[in-house]
Amino acid sequence: MDYYEILGVTKQASQDEIKKAFHKLAHQYHPDKGGDEKKFKEINEAYQVLSDAQKRQQYDQFGKGFDQMGGAGQGQNWDFNWAWQNQNANVDFEDIGDVFENIFSFGGARRTSKKDIKKGKDIQVDIEIALEDTLKETTRKITLDKLVTCHRCAGNGAEPGTKVNECFSCRGQGQVQQVKRTVLGSYTTFVTCPECKGDGTKPEKPCNVCRGEGRTKGQDAIEITIPAGIDSNQAIPLEGKGEAGKKGGRAGTLYARILVKKHPVFTRKEDDLYLMQDISYSQAVLGDEIEMPTLEGANILLKIPQGTESGRILRITGKGIPHFGGYGRGNLYVELQINVPKKVSRKQKELLAQLKKEGF
């Protein structure tokens, strides 16, 4: 198959376009990521040729017949076929995946921010509320067992009155360079500094309470404001209310997931409420005005039109759930069901018999 077709580019493609196409396809078909090994070899063979100006010129002139294959080299034109065909050799194929990550980052080895290393963990809690509680803003107070800022050292990890020094090993960076060698060549990566555990600093004398962590196990009382109109499984983020960060690092986020309990009478669908209401046969035929319950607790009057059929739905505007984060409310929908009695009195039978004679 033509090398240009393998990479999905034209013969006029620039080196940058070839590189981007290779980047995309190599990620897609990499065997370590569950891709097709045969296709992966084709992609790399095509890239070895088309990424080299001299080899590309020879390929354009002579086709695949020219001698393009070399030994197991280093740099971008590695012989991937040799590597895959010699998997029993002393090759660390787990490191090959790391090599690809560094190549494709287009910026060499990547650092992890000290802020991310020291940041406290996020926490999720579930809070159950009644359907009625969604009608207006409400609050809940909870007590969490979590890592909190150390009261003795105020979070810096050092015994009061002692200094916090820059880590000698990483020079305050929190990470150190590590060189790995594979069949594909050597590459540099950054790992967490083993001396300071990624903090970039070391206390002259660790805190007696937290042992230099800057945080200890404790409890925190938190008040959570729940907006009106919230629905089940919606989460309220409270930044800084998660676990305390390490040595003064940023605290994590607390996510309060709201669970709305089912109501015995009303069913919620988005911001609308639904209710089943039984009516008698005479009410359906003649029409009537009946009292209806609302989620607020007060009853309202509902007019039943004459000739109402079973299953008819009437709408009461503005008696649903408040719109979350906005104005107005949903509606209340009442489904009318004609109640056919299983037992009737003698007088009722006589009246029904008389109506039957009238063709009613």
Kindly describe this structure.
It is a single chain. The chain is α+β, with helices and mostly antiparallel strands and 360 residues long. The protein has helices spanning 3-7, 15-29, 37-50, 53-62, 80-85, 93-104, 114-118, 281-286, 346-357; strands at residues 123-129, 138-149, 164-166, 175-182, 185-192, 201-203, 215-226, 235-239, 253-260, 267-269, 272-279, 288-292, 300-304, 313-316, 332-338. A four-stranded mixed beta sheet has the order 10-11-15-14. A three-stranded mixed beta sheet has the order 1-9-8, with no helix packed on it. A two-stranded antiparallel sheet has the order 2-7. Helix 2 (15-29) packs antiparallel against helix 3. The protein starts with a helix and ends with a helix.
- In round numbers, the mean pLDDT is 82
- Unreliable segments of 5+ consecutive residues: 67-99, 101-109
> Which structural class matches the secondary elements?
alpha+beta
From the N-terminal CA to the C-terminal CA, the straight-line distance is 83 Å
Radius of gyration computed on alpha carbons: 36 Å
Outline, from the CA principal axes?
flat
Q: What can be said about the biggest beta sheet? A: 4 strands, mixed
Task: Compute the number of strand runs.
Answer: 15
The total of helices stands at 9
Provide the fold topology:
Blueprint: H1 3-7, H2 15-29, H3 37-50, H4 53-62, H5 80-85, H6 93-104, H7 114-118, E1 123-129, E2 138-149, E3 164-166, E4 175-182, E5 185-192, E6 201-203, E7 215-226, E8 235-239, E9 253-260, E10 267-269, E11 272-279, H8 281-286, E12 288-292, E13 300-304, E14 313-316, E15 332-338, H9 346-357
Parallel strand pairs: 1-9, 11-15
Antiparallel strand pairs: 2-7, 3-6, 4-5, 8-9, 10-11, 12-13, 14-15
